[in-house]
Specification:
Leucine Aminopeptidase, subunit E, domain 1, Aminopeptidase, 16 helices, aminopeptidase
Length: 461
């Protein structure tokens, strides 16, 4: 899918962004016929509304785009994308009214409004194309849009076409595109090479569990990204009810988001030594499925009691994080659709993240605001460590109290990332429940753009 800016032509229409509070002042400076047309049309510059203004011959002369007021804008993002989706086919350029500090956000939103998932059904793409606004890095925004589209495509693809085999193929295709190296450890080799938890989670499925290891770059700080690649989650023997299983094709949303971010990093040529680790499994049910009460060894050497086979994501991430920590990277980040508790706490639009590093948190918060990719810090609350220690084993994969589920899951992962490791964990949702500007219902990246924006400060690039 090509999500790119248009080239200006003589037919390109100017688009004037009008703040609701500034409409009257704007009209004062217009020719009488324009002011009369706007007033007669009832245009109030409400957020998301537009008005085509004709010339003396009745042909489109320019477009007014309502930008509402500050209070309205605070309730959403990518406002011009909502207008773009309703404009007639053609090429547009932003001629006035858009504050420079919002130009990149709105331009990216316009690009993303052109995304559709049409693998299984023909769909109409947004026919309104935008000329890149002056002062924005158009090439960077196109790369970001393409990375986001990759994430969405992977999440939206159902598990019959996006099992561990297909997820591996997507990783290898991305690596080939950017000249990255890959290694894949599958099936029984996981046990031989000491990844017992990845093997235990995926061994019941028809497609073998595996660990995908992608490397790119030979200079700069070491950055390791770990993405949860559970291609479908039945819950295992603690089987999910059907109401909870319907969206489980998105349980590899962490892997999808990491791959979209990896594309951005490689395509932009960031000076890092990038490593991407994806444990790709399906949590299925068969005679070989792990059982409640089983105690698993792990790559870290810690033993884990399985009190709920539906808490499998932290198991596969644990082995992958332990591997990543062995190189002591300058920053290690995990992304996962991990807990329902995170959704209850923050809903589907905010990306909760955990870090012990105040510098990382400050950089992420500032970056998230700049690129309209909201994040919210939750604590690695050490007093809850006792909740993940069952007594019979070193760790419990599903504490029975039910309290602070997102925090206890994050604490579990921190045990495998290692003490002193610069580690950040994102517990994302990866799904847009209803359509919004630039975000159709379906798979969506969360946290990746904020992290990309923060990396130069975090890693000193």
């Amino acid at each position: 899918m090509s999500l790119t800016f248009a080239t200006a032509t003589p037919e390109t229409l100017a688009l004037h962004v009008i703040d609701a509070d500034g409409l009257d002042a704007w009209l004062v400076d217009q020719p009488a016929q324009v002011a009369s047309w706007v007033r007669a049309s009832g245009f109030s510059a409400a957020l998301g509304k537009h008005l085509m203004v004709p010339d003396a011959d009745g042909r489109p002369a320019f477009v007014l785009a309502g930008y509402g007021g500050a209070a309205q804008r605070a309730r959403g993002r990518f406002h011009l994308a909502g207008i773009a989706a309703n404009l007639p086919a053609g090429t547009y350029r932003i001629a006035s009214g858009l504050p420079q500090e919002r130009a990149a956000q709105e331009a990216l939103g316009w690009l993303l409004s052109g995304y559709v998932f049409d693998r299984y059904r023909s769909q109409t793409r947004n026919p309104a194309r935008l000329v890149a606004p002056e002062g924005v890095d158009a090439a960077r925004l196109e790369v970001i849009a393409q990375g986001e589209a990759l994430t969405r495509d992977l999440i939206n693809t159902p598990a019959n076409d996006m099992g561990p085999d297909a997820l591996e193929a997507a990783c290898l295709e991305l690596a080939a595109r950017h000249g990255a190296g890959t290694q894949v450890i599958r099936g029984a080799a996981l046990l031989e090479q000491n990844f017992p938890m990845i093997h235990a989670v995926g061994r019941a499925a028809a497609q073998e569990p595996r660990l995908i290891d992608l490397r790119w770059g030979d200079a700069g700080p070491r950055l390791t990204l770990v993405g949860k690649g559970v291609c479908f989650d039945t819950g295992g023997l603690n089987i999910k009810p059907s109401s909870s299983m319907g969206l489980m094709k998105k349980d590899m949303g962490g892997a999808a988001t990491v791959l979209g971010l990896a594309h951005m990093i490689m395509a932009l040529g960031l000076k890092v030594r990038l490593r991407v680790l994806i444990p790709a499994v399906e949590n299925a049910i068969s005679a070989g499925a792990m059982r409640p009460g089983d105690i698993l060894p792990s790559r870290k050497g810690l033993t884990v009691e399985i009190n709920n086979t539906d808490a499998e994501g932290r198991l596969v991430l644990g082995d992958a994080l332990a591997l990543g920590a062995e190189e002591s990277p300058d920053l290690m980040v995990s992304m996962a659709t991990l807990t329902g508790a995170a959704r209850v706490a923050l809903g589907p639009d905010l990306s909760p993240y955990f870090t012990d590093d105040a510098g990382v948190a400050a950089a992420l918060e500032a970056a998230a605001s700049r690129v309209a990719d909201p994040v919210w810090r939750l604590p690695f609350w050490t007093p809850y460590e006792a909740d993940i220690e069952p007594g019979i084993a070193d760790l419990d994969n599903a504490p029975k109290s039910g309290f602070a589920g997102a925090i206890t899951a994050a604490l579990f992962l921190r045990r495998f990332a290692g003490e002193g490791q610069r580690y950040t964990h994102f517990d994302i949702y990866g799904w847009q429940p209803s359509a919004a500007p630039a975000r159709p219902k379906g798979g969506v990246g969360m946290g990746a753009r904020a992290l990309l924006e923060a990396l130069p400060e975090v890693l000193g690039l």
